[in-house]
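Is beta-D-glucopyranose placement plausible here? Inputs below.
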Amino acid sequence: MNQFQTFQRIVLLMIGVSLISTSCSPLPHGLNDEESKIDGLLSKMTLEEKAAQMLNLGLPSVLTGSYWDLRTEVNFDSIRFADYIENLNVGSIHNTVHPHYLSDKNEWYNIVKTIQDASINNTRMGIPVIYGIDNIHGANYVKHSVMFPHQIGLAATRNKELVKETARITSYESRAASLPWTYNPNADVSSSPLWGRIAESFGEDPYLVSQMTASYVQGTQGASLADETSTAVCVKHYLGYGAGANGKDRANAIIPESTLRQVYIPPFAEAIANGAMSVMISSNAVNGIPCHANSYYINDILKGELGFDGVVLSDFSDIEFLVEAHEVAETKEEATWMSINAGLDMIMNPYDADIVKFIVDGVETGQISQERIDDAVRRILRLKFRLNLFEKPYSDPKDFPNLGSDLHIETNYQAAAESLTLLKNDGILPLQIGKNILVTGYASNSINILNGAWSRTFLGQLADFNDPSKLTILEAIQSINGNTTTTYGQGTDYLTDVDSDTVVRKARNADVIVVCVGELPATEKPSDINELELPATQQELVHKLSKLGKPIVMVMVQGRPRIIREIEPLANAILMAYLPGQEGGRAIADALYGEINPSGKLPYTYPKFTGNILPYYYKKADIRDKNWGYDGFDPQYPFGHGLSYTSFSLNNLTMSSKSISGSESLELSVEVTNTGSRKGKTSLELYCKDLIASVAPDSKKLIRFQKIELESKEKKTIQFTISKDDLGFVNSKNEWIVEPGTFRFFVGTDPNDLLETDMEYKSN
Ligand code: BGC
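Reply from A.M.:
I modeled the complex. C-alpha cells:
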C-alpha cells in the first residue's frame, strides 16, 4: 500500500467504525463481545485498579536486590511482588533480569507463570499482566533463539516476504517463552547518518520503511493475535526519533508539519492500517515539544486522524525525562498528568509504582478526566483480550519445539545472505578457495560485533552468552579456505591499535587481505558518536596494508554508513554487512567465496563527506555546486546501490498510457535480463519525480521495489500499476495533493543507470 492508500483505508475504517457504532449492529469477529467484556470490567474497577493497569514496570522491580544488580539467578522479592502484582494488580511488566542472566524458554515460563498466576488468582479483578520485551532482531532475550540481521539489513534485502518470515519466527520464539508483546518494529525514518540507532531502523526512505514495517507487523501479529504463535507489535518511536538535529540519541528534531506528514508519519500509518496494536512514543522532542507531551501528535493525529484504537506506551522512564531533560514540568506528578492528557495510555515506569498515586490524585483533583483513564484502560484491556491473555496467560514451552530450530536458522541465514550489499568489486570477488588469505580487523573474529546491541544483553557486548556453535567471519573463512591457508591477526580494536605491525608482517605472505572493519555494539546514548568517519585506527590499518600492494577486500560490519572516503580507493572490493546477526559470519564467508551471490541494496545514501549529507530525495537547490551548477550531490554510494556477481540489463520500458486523469491507473512494464553467467537476485526499483510543483519537488522518490531472481540469460517482464496515489506530496497547507503536470519515472536495478519515461497527470 502506498501512503495515499494507507490514509484512504484509514478513513474508510473510521467511517466503517462510526457506522457500526451508530447502527448498533454486531461488530465482526466477536468485537462486540470483547467491548462488552471490557465495559463489564471497567464498571467494577476502582480508580486505583485502573491506574495500576496503566503502569508498565521493569522486571527487576519485583526481584530481590536493587534494580541494576548483576544477577545470576532469579529470585522474586516477596514484599515487592505482593505490593505490585497482588495488591496493585499492575498492568504490565517489561524486559529482563538484567544483565548477567539469560533465561531459556522454561525459565521464562516459570517467571511469567509466577506473575500471571498471582495476577489472576490473587487479585480482586483477576486481570493478567501483559509482558512486553525488546525483540529487536529476534527473540533476543530468550536463550537459544535465533538472532536475525538488524532491521537495516532486512531493509537491504528488499524482500518483504523474507522480512515477514523473520518477524513470524521472532513471534514464535517469543511466545515459546510466554512473552506476547514485542517492542518492535522500529518505524523511524533515519534522517541523520550519525544516529546510533540506524541499525534498528529500515533506513532513510519513507516508502521502504513503510513497506518493511507493514511486512514486519503482518509477520509479527499473524492472522490473529489470539493465535498462540503471534505477538502484538509495539511500533516505535512515534515521532521523529531518527531526525535528531545533532544526530544524538533523543535529540530535539526540527520537522515542519508537511515533512512530518510526508516522511515520518506514513510508516506509522501503514503499521496501523495493518492492525498494529500498540505504539511507543519517542523520547525526543520535535520542534521543542517533547513527544510525550504532544497532544496534537498523539490525540489528534495518531488516535484521531489515523484511527488508532490500540495502546500508546511511553518509552523508558520518559515521565522523569519530561522533568529532567525536557524541563517542561516541575514535578513527576505534573509530568504524569501532562503525558496522560497528551494521550499516553501506559507508562513505562521501570523502577516503582509512584505514577499510580499520581494518576489517582490527578483524577481526584480534576487534572485528568475519568473518561481519559477509562479510554486508556479500555485500550489496555482490549490488547489483553485480543492476545487471549485472560484464557491463556502463558504458553507451555513444550508446544514450541522449533525454537532455535534448523528451519529458523536457515531463514536467518537467508536473511543475512540477502542483506549483504556488494558496494565495490573490481573482479577480485568471489575469492578462489585455497589462496593464502590474511584475515584482520576489529570485526573479523567477534560474534558480538556481528550481532550488535540487543543481543542477550542490552548493549550486546558480553561474550558470556554467545552460542559457541556460531561462527565469526574468521572461523567461517577458515571452514571454507582451511586453517593452513588462512592467517589471522586482529590489527585493531574499535578505536585503538592492537598488533597492526605484526599483521602487516603476516600479510606479506598473503595472496589476498580481508579487512573487517566495524562499529562497537551499542544503542541509545552509548551509541552516540561525534564524527561519522570510520575510526582513524581502523582506517590506518587499511592504509598500512595497502602499502604491500596486495588485493584488499574490505568487509564492513556497521549499522551506520561510516565515512570511508580515504580508504575506499585502497580496497579492491567492499562488502557491506550491516549488523548481520548470528549467521552473519557464515553468510559473509559464503559471499566472499561465491556460494552466495550478493543481492542487497543500500537502504540509505552512503555519504562521502561529513559536510555533504543529503538523502537521495534532496531538493535540487540543495545540490548547487561551487561552479553554480548542480553537481553537488556526491555520495560515496547512492541509495539502492548494490552489485552482484552477475549482471542485469533492462529493456523495453513501456507504459500502457502516456497520461492518466482522475482515478485512472496505468501499467508500467520493463524487461529485466540476467546477462551474466550465474543465477542472481536483484531488486527492481521504481522512482517518480514531479517535474514542477508548488512545493520544490524531491529529486525523486521510491514508489515500488520488487525482489526478483533470474537464472543466467533468463528474462522477466515486471509490471507495476501506477495511479494518482503514487504521485502526491504534502503541500504548504499540509494536505496530500497531486498537481496536474508531467511526472518522470526512473526504473532499474542500478541507481546510476536508470531508464526514464514521462507521463502526464490531468486532473480530470
Ligand atoms: C528504548 C526503546 C525500548 C525501551 C525498553 C528505551 O530506552 O528507547 O526502544 O523499547 O527502552 O527497553
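Short version: DSSP finds 20 helices and 27 strands in the chain.
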